[in-house]
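Researcher: First entry.
Model:
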Amino acid sequence: MLLHNLNMALGQLKKYRLLILLGLVGLAVGLTCFVLFVLFPYFSHPKGIDDTYWRDEATGDWFIGFTPECVIYADKFWEIVSQTEEEDTYRLVVSDGTVTIPIEVGEMKKGVRSIEIAGLEPVACSPITSAALPDYPQKDTRRGIKDNGYCMGETVTFVGWLKDMPEKKRKQREFEISYDNIFISGESENAYAKMDSLGRFSITLPLVNSTEVFLDWGRTNLSTVLEPGETYFFLYDFSTDQKLFMGKNVRLQNELIAHPHSWDQLMTFEEHGKADAMKAWKEADRIRAKQMGMLQLLLILHPNLSQRYIDYVEGYYQTLQATGMMQARFNTPNMELPQAYMEYVGKEFWQKRLQPYTQYRDFATFMTDYLNQLVMGPRSMGINIVEMLLCFDEAGEVSLTEKEKDCLKQYPVLIAQREKDISDASEKDRQALTDAFNNSEIVKMAKATFARYDDVINDEIQFRYVLQSVKAIDSVGCDKTLRDIHIARQLYGVIDHLCKPLSDKMMKLVEDEITLPFARKAVLDLNDKYLAIQKRDISKSASLKSADAVKEMSDGEKILRKLIEPYKGKIILLDIWGTWCGPCKAALSHSQEEYERLAPYDMVFLYLANRSSDESWKNVIKEYNVTGDNVVHYNLPDEQQSAVEHFLKVSSFPTYKLIDEEGNILDVDADPRNLNRLEQLVKLMKGNN
């Protein structure tokens, strides 16, 4: 009987456990409020006003701050002209350089001071002693992030102070704001504001719309959203570890500091079964459900959190899951995802996408991945390079000889025969068959023809890919703004990938398909940049070398030895890169700094380009000024470049190799992006001689 009664009691307890939990949470909230709002003011309020920050008791906003250096008020720094104290009351006169105003600070009573500014109605203020602004006293039910329609000319004013920074954080004298430009595929933009000796700064930056930004991440570890037309004052007091926003419309920003969202997202497939997309889908749902549960609990504990905060965080988790699920495609064989998976992503995330599209940095990544998955490259588009060139010849766009046309027509037949022959052959026989195929006169001429018209082929492939991508976005539905954004990103990506201006057919797409001014401007600005680069002539530069010296060679080691032979007795930094490689080009942009730092060591900088057309190759060299007396460039035929890379075991780009004075290839990390470490290596090499 005792056991029966115990089981009955446990059953009742389970039945009412939710009510019990809510009761406990309510009790915790009540005790917290009692401590914070009844006991805390009596025991924790600061003495005096030096280095104190005060919030408006009625609105909950950060109203004013007092420091020995200045007063912070109305989003400005005010110089203290005079200050007097009498029995815990203070009178100050402050100036912003144009206007001078009086400030009266009343005696502290029950944790509150009355602060009167320039004769205006006194404001009851309490000291901010927490790391972030406390909860606002009233619920704000406004919804939505500002959407200005991507209007050109909009700006944000951002004033700030990294106060009492530790010495080790003072080396960088600029405050950095980083954000993604949604019209520019794969690139972040950075705005910099010079700080004075105290760490204060001010900057006005253009924003196309409300945008997620990263605020000097290395020092603040803070991201937020900024809305065009607003002025923000940001304080990070290192001595108190307080982060506060002041402004007319900064509640959301303060709430995001006080209650940061979760960063958890779906990781790579290795964590839950490689290529198991359905399992990954389930895991992504689990992560988001957990995040939403945490948000609901947070709202119980902090019922006054604004509706804008709730909407923004919910949207953040939605975008985070969408991005993670589409990034997962890179961990599947052939980047394939099940139809049900893609249908879920389309219904749950694409159709429920949030505007403005700039408010979450990850949205652009999700959009690109989702639409690219629908296109899936040249093979899915049915591009046949042989047929393409033959059609272009008939149209007079290229000029093929009769022998070239015959070779191109026979080339697919030889490929099919080779595939058939090697399907059942041994590994040894397969290699022999492949060598015989590559040494065939027909294959050699076909490949030479492909190389001669490489620019034409690449232009056409990119053009057809853009058309397919436009078809994809039209098939899943979108508004005109998003369509313009997507087409602009695609065309910008073509210019960036090929490192040359758009073809006439591509330019017609810009004129016919893009009407959004910001989107059109992003494409045309980059196109104009490469038009200007093309006009520069470096054909006579001694840095550009002909591959004739290795023309008949096929062994990768022998090719490399021949190329470095003239520089025996000097240290060589070998850079294997490609015009299509973003990190490669980012590294090349610092070439002159690299040359200047390593000038005392009389080195040679040898560059080998991977699968880069002659035009693109020269344009990148001109763009980043990668030339000099000790700079050497080769753009080898694809097969020779591949042979060299195979010998060096190249698996990623860029790849760097350090070669000593005797021609030995050293097994060291020679990445010039860590210039200090590279210089130390070179010093050691010189010291050993």
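Researcher: Second entry.
Model:
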Amino acid sequence: MLFQATLLVDLTAMAICLWMAFYLFARGFPSKVTMRGVILLMALSAFFFGAYNNLFNQVTGTAAWRATFLIIGIAAWYDLTLTILPDQQRKVLLPWAVGIYTLALVTIVLLLSTRDAFIGEQGNSIYVAHMGIALPYILYGVFEVAACFGIFQNLLSHGKVGLTTQGKFFLFASIFPVAGVTYGVIALAISQPMPRLYQDLMVFSGVFLMGISVARHQTLIERRTTLRDFPVTSLTILFLAAVYALTALRLGLPLQLVGPLVAFVVLTHALYDLAREFLERLRIRREGTFRKQLRRLENEKSSEDTLRRRLQEGLDLLCSTLGASSGFIATKSGDEFVVTASRQSVELERRFPFSEISYEDISKSQNELLPDIQYFAPSFDGQTQIAVVGIGKPKTRLNYSHGDLDLLSEVADQIGTIVSLSNMQPQIRQMLAQSELNESEAGVIAGEMLDAMETNPDQDFVKIVEEGLRHLSDYIVLGQSPLADKLGVKAGSEIERGRELQKAIVSSIELLRPADKRPPEPLPRVWYNHAVLHDAYVEGVPNREIMARLYISEGTFNRTRRNAIRGLARLLMEKKTTAS
């Protein structure tokens, strides 16, 4: 029974530590706290893997390696608690830290170089390995005692970080390995054999809780992951590993090989997750560059040449972001569309009859005049189509995702705004003067319009925001909404939470207002996002009346509302990140 329990603990601990190490590395790089947690988890996963194999095959010298991995893990644990301290306190503790790291290195070298550091390894599978009372044992014990003392010193002195809201999780997690280390040091020397199960279980409990603490730190402090991501992905990977293990046992795989199989399953899935996260970060970084490049255009004065250059740069960035093979932008001139920007597509200044590239919404229909273009996205001013954006097939995929098409729709809508502003410069200047806006505020408006191409908010978050808008006047429903949790709204009761959430949503809608004074109807395009959200959800105006106010069709209204909700979701995320 003791053998089976020890085997189960070591196998489970190895799988969980290995997965958590890769998960935290993928989501947390290059956070200092996270990287120390990764080292801790990797060292302990190797420790438990060695402990599992030792149950079946006791090889002289492997106990020293397991002790080495444990030393690395404890040193990383100490360094992690040191990292969460303020800079000034870390400088005070620097001599103690250097001493611990030096002692760890000397102990590792001594353990690996001493032939008989551990005695009686052969035949000892379920009990703590024994050491003679000699220099290796003394240094090993001194290191563990000094490191454990240092961990609690970091958490409970110099500001008592371990008693803060965030630090108490690190403090609670540290109790278990200290107990395990104390148990192990005593068991190493006494002649009475002591089960390894208790030490492994206490060390694993502490490491698991420390991994949870680091993941929580990423979620609540550094905003590098979400509350749902960690438990869902972890349970999925562990469930798959369990399925593989049970299937292998039913097929007759020796129990000794189940550990390596589980490690291989976790490792392959973790590497896949790491590669996916790496590619996702590249995409986000590319879109961030996309936004910075577009920001350069916000204060430029409008002219025909400037408009063409702006549209060309915007098209190049859009095609690069979506991975499109080609694309073009055509603007309305009289009864025709004239190509004003092109990327590996039709030639500039080419003219098309209005009816040939006129669309109500994003369309995938084949156009004989433009056979290489896969999607067309119209841009409107009121009910009049004033531009069209076309993109070719994706370079590396079979088709575009829904998120890609949402971004295309949003960009097309903002291109309509830019073209409309360019065509109505005299009226815009008069409107800005009447609204007491200066030239710098006009530039900010243009910059906000171009922000459509920044990183898209999570689709689930957009749906939650839309649901919150639909129940904007119902405090009880708002108080129970997951949006309140996402935005960190705290209050004594659900009704108070709902009231606070309503204030946050309404104030964010007001931030979309281009000016203090709303101009007479028909409203300019710069007012569309604010007008749709404010009139539909704050005032409760029927959609038909809003369409009449804006002089737009139902299709344009629905597209504008989608874009406005996505813009509001982006704004709420930015406000939450800034507040944190």
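Model: Note on the second entry: The first strand starts at residue 118 and ends at 119.
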